[in-house]
Amino acid sequence: MTAKSNKGVRLETDIEKCREESNWKKVIELSDQLKQKHNSQGPLCNFLLGEGKLEMFLEECPPLDTNIGKARAGLQDAKKCLLIAAGEQGVKVRISVLVLSSL
């Protein structure tokens, strides 16, 4: 059990480092791994996935009037992840406050 616990902590540490470096592709990859290995971290993983997808989209398509059409379609997945994170399980771990304040 300790080995599994240490792997989860290691993944969380790596995710935090990637967030600080704005390495959103790696954040998404590591969040997927964390979600698969530690299902109890679902709300956190959904938040991180949504954040990573949102940030990657903003890097590729700056918030300009010409990108409104792209944003409507391109941000659906990020919005879905963030809304799931703010759902019932997220409320239990207080993620909803973070998500709703960022929307």
Automatic annotation (TrEMBL):
Provenance organism: Nesidiocoris tenuis
UniProt cross-references to InterPro entries, sorted A to Z: TTC7_N (IPR045819)
Domain of life: Eukaryota
Protein name: Tetratricopeptide repeat protein
Tetratricopeptide repeat protein 7 N-terminal domain residues: 3-92
Pfam hit, one: TTC7_N
